């Protein structure tokens, strides 16, 4: 009897212990709560939870940075400096035409600094031979002469492209003109009256007769003035341009003027 009572007591105690443990577990876990999911490693994130900053906005492409090595400078369509040389003949006008025959040799050389394809600044040296007319030499009277013009001009130049090979330009600006000449075999007597030629030659400045003293057989006349002109160009396969140019130049010192119209053909590069 004693053994059966002890077994029944032990069984009753075990049941009570199980009931108490079950009630405590039910209080720790809320009713209806799903069992805890298996814990995933913190280093693994679902693809749907990637940071939004890593995904580009819809409809926008990220700007692609072009490496410096792939960037190419835009080629210029003009030269910073151009040079030109030309030869031709002169035509005269004004009072110069009365004493100088046309067709004297002309030579030019110039350089231009270009600001862009259309605008530049050009400086030129112009040499023009101004041979006196035969009628002037007879009235002087003289057997021969040497008479030349040396000019320096500084002109803004406007280039006018017409096609890939053909172009044009116009230029205008101030100039400095020096005319130097000499007569040979002249038999004019000092103190003789001034003719229009001697006045243009510079021998009668401020008087009505040729000075008794002084070297009136030589002329040196310097004057400031202006010039303007235009030209056309034709580019050759080598890149050198052939040009044809016409100008009007005018210099004046007191009542003495020098008017020359050089016409030249040359090359520029």
Structure description:
It is a single chain. The chain is an alpha+beta fold. It has a domain at 82-268: Porin. The protein is 16% helix and 42% strand. The protein contains 4 helices and 8 strands; from the N terminus they run H-E-H-E-E-H-E-E-H-E-E-E. It has helices spanning 2-28, 96-99, 134-139, 196-201, and strands spanning 81-92, 105-114, 119-129, 144-161, 166-184, 218-235, 241-253, 256-268. It has an 8-stranded antiparallel barrel with strand order 1-2-3-4-5-6-7-8. A hairpin with a 4-residue loop joins strand 2 and strand 3. The relative contact order is 0.14.
Compact overview of the structure:
Helix content is 16%, strand content 42%. The chain has 4 helices and 8 strands, in the order H-E-H-E-E-H-E-E-H-E-E-E.
Which CATH class of one domain? Mainly Beta
This entry's quaternary arrangement is: single chain
Strand content: 35-45%
H/I helix tally: 4
Strand order across the largest sheet = 1-2-3-4-5-6-7-8
Percent range of helical residues: 10-25%
What name is given to the CATH topology of one domain? Porin
CATH architecture of one domain: Beta Barrel
Element order, helices and strands? Answer: HEHEEHEEHEEE
N/C terminus separation = 136 Å
Low-pLDDT stretches: 1-7, 28-38, 40-49
Number of strands: 8
The geometry reads as elongated
Rg, Cα atoms, Å: 51 Å
Major sheet size, sense and barrel closure = 8 strands, antiparallel, barrel
Structure classification: alpha+beta
Mean pLDDT: 83
